[in-house]
Amino acid sequence: MASQDPGLSQAEDPTAQEYLNLTQRVIDYLAKKGYTRTEAMLRMESANQEIDGRPLPPASEEARPKFKLAFEMTRKWIEDNLDIYRPELRRVLWPLFVYSYLSFISSLVPLEGRQFFEANKNLFLPEHTEDIRALEPVSLPEHVQENSVAKIYRNNKYRLTLSTPAFSNLVQFLESKQKEGGMVMLAILSSYCTIVTKERAADDRFSFAAMLNRANDISGIPAEDEGIPGHHPGSAYTGDNPAMAGTLPRLKLGKLPLEPTLEGDVRAELEEADVKDPPTGGRPSLVQHFEQMIKREEDEEAPTRAEIPYPPSLARDVAMEVQRVKENRDRFKIDGRTGGVGPAISVCMFTFHNTHDGINCLDFSGDSMLVAAGMAESYIRVWSLDGLPIPPTYPELEKDEGAVPPANSHRLFGHSGPVYAVAFAPSIASPDEQEVKTNTRWLLSSSADKTIRLWSLDLWQCMVIYKGHASPVWDIAWGPYGHYFVSGGHDKTARLWVTDRVRQQRIFAGHDDDVDCVAFHPNSAYIFTASSDHTVRMWAVTTGNAVRMFTGHTGNVTALACSNSGKLLASADDQGSIFLWDLAAGKRLKRMRGHGKGGIWSLTWSAESTVLVSGGADGTVRVWDVAVPAQDLASQGRVIGEGGAGTKIDAGNATAASGAQATATGVSASKTANKKKGKKGKSKEVVVTPDQISAFPTKKSPVYKTRFTGMNLVVAGGAYMP
């Protein structure tokens, strides 16, 4: 039989198939008897299958390097192509690189494969760092069968979308270079890729201006329909059938209605408050504002109390709802941006000194009275924000024998490993004269010891230990009304818990790697999980099934936050990007950049869901516009923000920004700064998208936590790193 170029299919030979079956029987026998070294040698000598199981064609020494030569030829041709085609053609190089490398290894030429990998991996590091890191150990055919990332590419076709002229141009070139290796690349595209061609339309995506802009964009953001089916950016479909990718479950994103008795009690309390303190200055009464808050849009579907059961409401629940209505009416209102001028957001920053890098996490209580820190030394420390002794909820507890005396900070001991997450139970500030206190009473913590602990802030003791995770627990989050909480850990699962039961109520399994971040939807009907596999999933609490999947992050997702309206989700990664997602449509709305690399560790929404605030490892707190699409502002060419001309923040030195607020002019500002630096090495500048309203740099304090209060004040916390 004539030899064939590597990467091309070959008809199965019955004799060869019988040989493979016999070889497999011998391998099974050797494995059963424990002859591991003999088994390994036999596998090496009999590894004559392609990465998808097809028999390899006999490859001569001259034919083996064609993967390398063909890839290099294709890459040079793409770089020399027209500017309007180059950005989309560059997206073809990644699957060609991966499948060529896996074919090298499967063809038992690991030396050439390693040289090929090392020579070209830097082309894809900004976007595919994690995949490259996972594929780097692959050096034997057995590794191709066992490596998780290799299996994903081996068992699925990579999806690409190209314009018809670009695709035709590519095919014509490869066909004209058959002898130089063009057929090898064509075989990979045919066997391992699904290419969807689209006619060039006169819209923003395919206009000359948009393509030239993408050619100059250093972000390398993939298209929304690119990648492995079911895993391409923006895909909300969670099933296995690509043909059903347009079918999404209907979501109930409306507000969870109050219990009838609770609603009646709240209304009665508000009516009494209106009589004692009538509204002035054109403000609505508390009852009117309450009616507006619980009003639901006609087309908005909401879960019922029967679907999300809660314990009967208490006097504390009534007091919290009343105080929530008061805060919502009297808050500092943040409207959508108009005329390119953002709202004057205030941030109160708490900095921790002499921590010796021992703080792993922070959380602020809902009543803005306490802050808790999870320590690497396996304990938790709680401080009062005003520096005064922390009073007990019930003064009579101070008289009990063995009661902890009041102090401005307390240590909680019990975990046997570093504490990775702390979370205060929902609470709200209450007036001193109020009989029913609504301050914080409970604290959750998770640790490397695989447990979650519930702490009483009245007794300063651990009350419950929740066990279920098989590995360290990375994150925890309370439900919006307490009672429920969710956790995510190294065992690749998220779990739903109820405070009065020690066993989990739901296990959410489906991620391919650690679950690093978790969050609740405001109506308690859904939870969100973010994983090291670069995906974000939305799960239904009632069924435990995934209802949405959002991917597109090129780094590990480090923060999640759902808007108070329940319609938008924000996710951030360690590459400095923030993505906004439309939950109902299951689509990505936009990507916002400005943070330096290292991780965005916290996200928080304003009460109106029009402004997002983030904090991260680059030592800045940044305020983002949500309502206005980024491309609209970019076309206006305005400087976003307040208080002076646009200032570029150096990712390596946040203090370079003058004043409390810094703004950005987008990609053009980055290019100008780079030109000024000349040839003094690589620039540390990061591109700031125009939807950043303002930035608050710290001196040398990574920001661990940001939080919007009910009055729309931002509270942030971090540790000073000299």
From TrEMBL:
CDD domains: TAF5_NTD2, WD40. Keywords: Initiation factor, Nucleus, Protein biosynthesis, Repeat, Transcription, Transcription regulation, WD repeat. PROSITE patterns: WD_REPEATS_1, WD_REPEATS_2, WD_REPEATS_REGION. The keyword Protein biosynthesis applies. GO terms for biological process: transcription initiation at RNA polymerase II promoter. WD repeats lie at residues 352-386, 412-458, 466-497, 508-549, 550-591, 600-626. InterPro entries: TFIID_NTD2 (IPR007582), TFIID_NTD2_sf (IPR037264), WD40/YVTN_repeat-like_dom_sf (IPR015943), WD40_PAC1 (IPR020472), WD40_repeat_CS (IPR019775), WD40_repeat_dom_sf (IPR036322), WD40_rpt (IPR001680). GO terms for molecular function: RNA polymerase II general transcription initiation factor activity; translation initiation factor activity. GO terms for cellular component: transcription factor TFIID complex. Residues 64-193 form the TFIID subunit TAF5 NTD2 domain. It holds the Pfam family WD40. It is found in: Nucleus. This is Transcription initiation factor TFIID subunit 5.
